[in-house]
Design goal:
This protein has 488 residues and is of the alpha+beta class. The chain is built from 13 helices and 17 strands. Strand 5 and strand 6 form a beta hairpin. The longest helix has 34 residues.
């Protein structure tokens, strides 16, 4: 029988403890409030000589329903030659957060905001990242604008960056915009009330679809890993829902990949050292080849992202239920992304998964420190000023950012398991349809289909293999350790 008693486990306290355990400092240091007060005393955009005023454009943002730290806004126009001109406005965080300040030092140490599902631990104080440095609706802001033109083949050319004043006219969300773009739902209220905004989003979608087709032609990987988020009631997780990609998430992803490429190539052409975001050519390509062989496909002996993506697309059509598990295996075998220093006239290792050679992180400075560093490098170059970081500085920052991003993933994974254990505890005794996702010397592992949670089979798992469909009965959960145990 399922339990009718509510289960109380303080997930917020557990998240705070996990942050400390993995090397983060979740509380802001002494002196933060004083610096913050000085910034808040002047809420209007600071005067910047010679920057463009683009506040009249019909800028909009698309992000998660719950997002409060808005890093970028978008605008596009149709050009006479058939290309689509795209502008990405990125929040100028550096104009408020001075290099070497207490707030900057904390961001440099943390390197990233951490999203635990029950609480966000922001890299910058929320008064900045959700306030003065966020591109909030109906607010004037200073931004770094990244511009490029997308041709019918999906190639982005004529890239450049400059500073501008901007004004977000519509804060929108992925789910509602995506459903509308796909013809599966009505236009969001702000879109329905503004024909120009509707046309603007349709044009942006056209540009994004061109780019996604173009990148797939060059071997970008179409991966689909399962992501979930908890539904919270006060501080208690009561349900787990699956996050799904759609045309709106694809639109933003494509725009950001192209924008990051523009910044990387600008640095390369200018001879400016920078931090790049890379995913190296997989060292375990032989295992990827073996996985494909087991599914009836022969991949080349040498790493080939185009061949891998053709195989992934075919498997997605053939077996959509198991495709997230194949995607997850591929991601693990490719290895994690990392930040590296790239010096002038030095070839970047590139990003295997995105099939791009020139890629940096520049579009989320409210929540990623490398993006703030990139922003400072670009602003110095635009102003013909000395670069704010030495090559040794950049290398040390890249190493720190890679370490802390890995630690952030560990915190987020641990909290996903704890949240699932809390949500499922009242359902002990219930049965769930599931798929076997792993069999090793530790045991047999399954993923339930609704809700999507991972657990271990501790009774009756003998003879099961990866891909088998089973019905499992929940027999126990341990939120502190993140354990969920099933019987077949």
């Amino acid at each position: 029988m399922s339990s009718s008693h509510p289960f109380h486990f303080n997930l917020v306290v557990a998240a705070h403890a996990a942050m400390i355990e993995h090397g983060f400092q979740p509380d802001f240091p002494a002196g933060t409030d004083k610096e913050l007060g000085a910034i808040q005393a002047h809420p209007e955009p600071p005067a910047v000589a010679g920057i463009q005023d683009l506040r009249s454009l019909l800028w909009s943002s698309i992000d998660n329903d719950t997002s409060k730290d808005l890093d970028q806004i978008e605008w596009a126009e149709q050009l006479p030659d058939g290309r689509i001109r795209v502008l990405i406005g990125v929040a100028d965080v550096d104009v408020r957060v001075v290099e070497g300040s207490i707030i900057d030092g904390h961001a440099k140490s943390e390197t990233t905001s951490v999203y635990t599902g029950v609480r966000v631990f922001p890299m910058l104080p929320a008064e900045l990242s959700e306030g003065i440095t966020s591109l909030n609706e109906n607010e004037d802001r200073v931004a770094l604008v990244i511009e490029y033109a997308v041709d019918k083949a999906g190639t982005a050319t004529d890239g450049k960056a400059y500073r501008a004043l901007v004004h977000n006219r519509a804060q929108l969300a992925y789910n509602s915009v995506g459903a509308w773009l796909e013809g599966k739902g009505p236009a969001p209220a702000k879109v329905a009330a503004n024909a120009d905004l509707a046309a603007q989003l349709k044009l942006q979608d056209t540009a994004a679809q061109r780019m996604v087709d173009g990148r797939f032609q060059h071997g970008a990987l179409d991966l689909e890993t399962i992501e979930t988020r908890p539904v919270m009631l006060a501080d208690d997780a009561v349900e787990i829902v699956r996050l799904t990609k759609n045309r709106a998430t694809s639109l933003i992803e494509e725009f950001m990949v192209a924008a990051n490429g523009v910044i990387a190539r600008t640095f390369e052409d200018a001879g400016v050292a920078s931090i790049r975001r890379i995913v190296r050519t997989p060292k375990r390509w032989d295992r990827i080849v073996e996985l494909a062989q087991g599914l009836g496909t022969t991949l080349p002996a040498e790493p080939d992202s185009k061949a891998l993506n053709d195989f992934l697309l075919a498997q997605k059509r053939k077996d959509p239920d198991h495709f997230p598990d194949l995607s997850l295996a591929t991601v693990k075998l490719m290895g994690p992304g990392e930040y590296v220093l790239v010096k002038p006239n030095e070839v970047s290792p590139g990003h295997f998964g995105l099939a791009v050679q020139d890629y940096t992180h520049s579009t989320a400075p409210n929540r990623r420190f490398p993006d703030m560093v990139t922003q400072r490098l670009m602003k110095a170059w635009l102003a013909k000023a000395p670069q704010p970081y030495s090559v040794d500085d950049l290398n040390a920052i890249a190493v720190r950012c890679t370490l802390m991003e890995d630690n952030a993933r560990k915190v987020e994974r641990e909290m996903q398991k704890r949240i699932a254990a809390v949500v499922l505890h009242p359902r002990i005794g219930q049965s769930f349809p599931a798929i076997v996702t792993g069999v090793n010397h530790y045991g047999t592992f399954v993923r339930t289909l609704d809700p999507h949670v991972d657990g271990m089979v501790v009774q009756g798992g003998k003879g099961l293999d990866v891909g088998d469909r089973v019905t499992v009965k929940l027999i126990s959960t341990d939120p502190q350790r993140g354990f969920i145990d099933f019987a077949v």
